[in-house]
Amino acid sequence: MTRPLLLASLLAATAFASTVHAAGDKEAGRTKVYTCAGCHGVPGYKNAYPNYHVPRIAGQNYEYLVSALAGYKKGEREHPTMRAQGESLSQQDIEDISAYLASLATAPAK
Question: What is the topology classification, in CATH, of domain 22-103?
Answer without folding.
Answer: Cytochrome Bc1 Complex; Chain D, domain 2 (1.10.760)
